[in-house]
Amino acid sequence: MGKAICCLLLIAMVFRNHAVVVDIKARGAKGDGKTDDGPVIQKAWKEACAGGPSPSSVLIPPGTYMAYPPILFSGPCKGPVEIKANGATIKAPPELARLKSNSWIAFQYIDRLSVIGGTFDGQGHEAWKNQKCADTALSCQMPVNLRFSFVKNSLLKGITSVNSKYFHMVIFACDNINIEHATIDTPGNSLNTDGIHIGHTNGLNITNSNIKSGDDCISIGDGSKNVHIEKLTCGPGHGISIGSLGKYANEQPVQGIWIKNCTITGTIISGVRIKSWPGPTSTSGTATDIHFEDIIMNNVENPILIDQQYCPSNRCNKASPSKVKISNVCFKKIRGTSATNVAVKMDCSQGLPCENVEVSDIHLTYNGARGGGAGAISECSYVKPKVMAKNIPPACPGYS
């Protein structure tokens, strides 16, 4: 009898620790591109999330799945959970009338999440025509394609996001996230389709990824720390940005940002930049320990830009300087062509001038009307760059 009880206990332990694999097709998903498979996908998540301490997974087989928003993957889970979607396309409805949330697909309060593969199509063409999301508006309600909030120790690999109605991906209040081989694709005229927006996150690595957008390829907001971006291709879009900062109360510091070994092609407004709001509404904040290094610019407007008079809606009082302090910034080994004759512009705050800005080994030539690789210049206000190696153009007349 004792041996039988021990055997039963052993069997129970094996079942309890066995990984759960939930195939959404086996749970009733149609995958015909018409039926709303969102409820089936969410039920599959709940089953895997409750599976136990061993890694569990949700399998989304190759096919096309319609999923009406909002789709919520919420934890905490009993163990690691992986969503495997290689070869699968998940589509949001194109109709604006179906929008019920600020996110189409959201992940929250999860530890040890893996999302592997999958194309997430926001079908945003109609949304881009909606003027609610213009920079002059205050009430954009378009959904983000993929939102990750309070997620930690997780991997996002081989994800493709296309035609998002608004931002493609938001990483908020997360810790220790790796994004590898991501593909983000919207046309350059798509409104407010930032590739990846980051905020209040500590520890994020983005590598070997390709972003085409109608706004910033990557925007790094307040509270972002220890962010590493490497081997990224960006364009079309508005480049890679720190900020905008200083618009809202109680913003947290930005610190420890490394952007290295990237290629930026055909972007408008900027290549790499730091931007903050001026005026009496601007709030205090800091941006420090920021590194832009080993970057190729191909026909990029304003390849290197610090803009502390950022005011896209033209509703700012630019006579009142930004209260965001920028310090310990490095622009190093940045080369290629500028679509504007001002290749390096540092427009810092009169109230809080930029400090310890290093400009080293820059080689940018003007690719505009004058041609011939000549004519690129630098402009600086309220900053004295620290020149560590020869730069083309010189790092602001009178300062080099």
UniProtKB/TrEMBL annotation:
One Pfam family linked to the record: Glyco_hydro_28
UniProt main location, coarse: secreted
Family annotation (Gene3D superfamilies): Single-stranded right-handed beta-helix, Pectin lyase-like (2.160.20.10)
InterPro entries associated with the record: Glyco_hydro_28, PbH1, Pectin_lyas_fold, Pectin_lyase_fold/virulence
Annotated keywords: Cell wall, Cell wall biogenesis/degradation, Glycosidase, Hydrolase, Secreted, Signal
Single Gene Ontology BP annotation: cell wall organization
GO molecular function annotations of the record: polygalacturonase activity
Compartment list: Secreted, Cell wall
Signal peptide feature range: 1-19
Active site, renumbered: 238
Similarity-based family: Belongs to the glycosyl hydrolase 28 family.
PANTHER family listed in its UniProt record: PTHR31375
Protein name, per record: Polygalacturonase
Organism of origin: Centaurea solstitialis
